[in-house]
Amino acid sequence: MSLRPVCSVVLVLLTAPELLSQTPRASLLQADRSAAQLSSDSGFAFAARTAMSRTTVLLWPAAPVVSGKAEVEKFLRGHQADSLRLTWQPLGMRLAPDSSLGVTWGLAVGSSRVAPLPPRIGRYIAVWRREPERWSIAALVFMGIEAPDRTATWSGVPAVHALSRPSGAAGAFIAADLAFARLAGDSGAAVAFRTYAAEDALSFGGGSLLVQGPLPISQAVSGPEQWGWHPVAAGAANDGNLGWTAGEAIIRDREGTPNYSKYLTVWTRHANGQVRFLLDGGNARPAGR
After folding, report:
1. Is residue 19 predicted with pLDDT exceeding 80?
2. 50 contacts 38 by C-beta, under 8 angstroms
3. Do the domain assignments include residue 152?
4. Less Cβ crowding at N or C end of the chain, within 10 Å?
């Protein structure tokens, strides 16, 4: 199926009630394409202000986790987000059975608006919440895209707090993430990823590498590294069958040197009650954040 980008009045398409008169699948793809086109035409910051929800979680390359629309707004104003020409193209999607939550993923392309640099091709995952008159972005991560300002300081970004126990509508997904992390700590990342990956799971390793299925994913993360992580934000469909967690990770190499990262994981609940991840991807964050 062709997923050609739209190129029309995207701001109207993102907010008009007519958007949700389409099928949920069509309207979600339209919202994703429209946000990408708006980002390309008017800058990512403008697209983000238009498409994000009040509680959006943004996982920007090399930055800390940024949570909440107000903090995202401050972050975008202060960190040259629009010096990066950024767009993306959906390659896949998943809807909750009740269509209250959806996820899109695919290719992202970033290039500089101010310097003659070649474009960088990466990936993205976007989680969308269906609101009365539109789809809005609940969580968003880019992988393999170069951050525009490598010298940025992050003192103005508030620290996020670990979710140490399951609670709320996303409780089952928080519990799964915590158990997933415990298994990785006890038995290694390969065992944990093989156990918690759905049969059709996709993992975005290294930004541009796309790995599918429990065994290939487990092989991709096998090695001497020690993995640890914890969720800091989560959300779920109204019916509890699709959800997401975002969090902070530390991966230590053979010598114990830490690599700081952050992640977005999309989860599904099977008919037997098992919770397994469908999508997993992340990028770097500053040391100690």
Report:
1. no
2. yes
3. no
4. N
pLDDT digits (tens, 9 = 90+) for 42-72: 889 999 999 999 999 999 999 999 999 999 9
Pairing verdict, β 66-67 and 120-131: unpaired
Q: What share of the chain is helix, strand, coil (3-state, %, to 5)?
A: 30, 40, 30
Asked, for residue 2, whether it belongs to a domain, the answer is no
Measured distance CA(180)–CA(166) in Å, rounded: 13
- What would you report as the CA-atom Rg of the chain, rounded to the nearest whole angstrom? 18
In this predicted model, what pLDDT tens digit does every residue of 88-139 receive, in sequence order? Answer: 999 999 999 999 999 999 999 988 777 777 888 999 999 999 998 899 999 9
User: pTM for this one?
Assistant: 0.90
Rounded Cα distance between 14 and 8, Å, is 11
> How many Å apart are CA 220 and CA 274, to the nearest integer?
23
Quick check: is 155 in a domain?
no
Burial of 110 (0-12, 13-18, 19+ CB in 10 A): buried
